Amino acid sequence: MIDRWTWHGGGLAAARATFGDDGAPWLDLSTGINPNPWPVPPLTFDWSRLPDEADLRALEAAAADHFGVAAHHVCAVPGSEIGLRLMGQFVSGPAFHLMPAYRTHAEMLGRSMPLILTELARADGATLILANPNNPDGRVLDRDTMRDLLDRRGSSGRLLLDEAFADASPDISLASEVGRDDRLILFRSFGKYFGLAGVRLGFVLATPPVLARLRETLGAWPLSAAAIAIGTAAYRDREWIDVTRDQLARRAAELDARLQAVGLTATGSCPLFCLLHVADAYALFERLARRHILTRPFADNPSWLRIGLPPDRQALDRLMEALANG
After folding, report:
1. Which residue, 206, 236, 266, sits at the end of a domain?
2. Closest CA to 28 of 309, 293, 318
3. Number of domains, the chain
4. pLDDT tens digits for range 76-129
């Protein structure tokens, strides 16, 4: 069963089956999804009609405004996972993926070779895929470092940049560079920051020729009417976006401080999750799971345990009590 927990977060049904479900509520901290989602209002769309292309373009324009790019540099996809895997089919030549990383980064190019941060020079002139902020360790590289990585792609390599968690830290995004360099392809996620992963909505940012090929592969009606309506309204809600960014930063700082108070040091600069380094992460995972708190261990590193941001003060107190008292 350990493979289920280390494969992906969010296995709440499996956790209930394994560790019991006696009526006490489970606290799911196994993902990096905002636990306080955008409040979806009543929206009007017609389930009996195919989604209108004009509505899809309006969604892309709203997202582009949020990202700080022109709309013709944005293509909506049914989840950033799909965008990554589709774009991987269009990239040729030598390629590398930065570790640690999403499993998708290693799989999307098939032939890519792993490297760690201190080995980035090995990828000069080749295609490089990495996330910023990174998952699971929350590592963040500044814009100057990212621009340097883009410059080092040479004439034929590309920088495939997964910015799924960049909404909480927009100052690190390279979105503004998309229109200036056709070697850059960005991937953005809707579900993580807005807390609505079930909508299955993401975006690929690139030059128009690259996106034209992607649109041809996607075909007509790539998104549901619901995803289009929800995404458009959410990206236009600037007040919620700005308030949420401040709240996430404040609550993440409180989580870090509370963890330090019980002798645990959290690493990472992404407010939606943190990474703990402990002697036996799976033992701690099981201890928390028996208290109906689900976290995320990792098969390839037995000292890592990722903890998502608790949804409120009561949940944070519950986590801290479980960590302190077992």
Report:
1. 236
2. 293
3. 2
4. 999 999 999 999 999 999 999 999 988 899 999 888 999 999 999 999 999 999
